[in-house]
Design goal:
- By secondary structure, the chain is α+β, with helices and mostly antiparallel strands.
- The chain folds into two domains: 36 residues, no CATH class; 66 residues.
- Helix content is 44%, strand content 21%.
- The protein has three helices and five strands; from the N terminus they run ααβββββα.
- A five-stranded antiparallel β-sheet has the order 1-2-3-4-5.
- Strand 1 and strand 2 form a beta hairpin.
- Helix 2 packs across helix 3.
- The chain is elongated.
- The model has no long low-confidence stretch (mean pLDDT 85).
């Protein structure tokens, strides 16, 4: 994370000039904002079963969500890593999006999600 913070400081200094020294709070604020910059997953409903939706990237994991008429929703990343419960479809989408954003930020920062 320090490398990312230092890189951000260097870009700002190169862009605005050395007289605009940045403290770590500015870099930390930029890093903290990264998850909000990740676009949400785009869900597509299954043609065979409208209670199943998937969000798949060309490179990376596939998220799957299944809606139950009686007990809420479940979602999974690549279906082999286990299923996570959610109270409803919106909660499942929010949890999957948070997982996705954390994974993208981890790829940028080099840390584990």
């Amino acid at each position: 994370m320090n490398d990312l913070r230092n890189n951000i400081a260097a870009v700002i200094a190169e862009t605005l000039g050395q007289e605009h020294q940045m403290d770590n709070h500015v870099a930390d604020a930029i890093i903290a904002a990264l998850p909000d910059m990740v676009a949400p997953l785009v869900w597509k409903k299954s043609k065979k079963n409208p209670l199943v939706s998937t969000a798949k990237m060309n490179l990376g994991p596939q998220y799957t969500m299944r809606i139950s008429l009686s007990w809420g929703a479940i979602w999974s990343v690549d279906a082999v890593k286990g299923w996570h419960s959610a109270s409803d479809e919106d909660a499942a989408k929010a949890a999957a999006n948070a997982h996705h954003a954390a994974a993208v930020v981890a790829a940028i920062t080099g840390e584990q999600p």
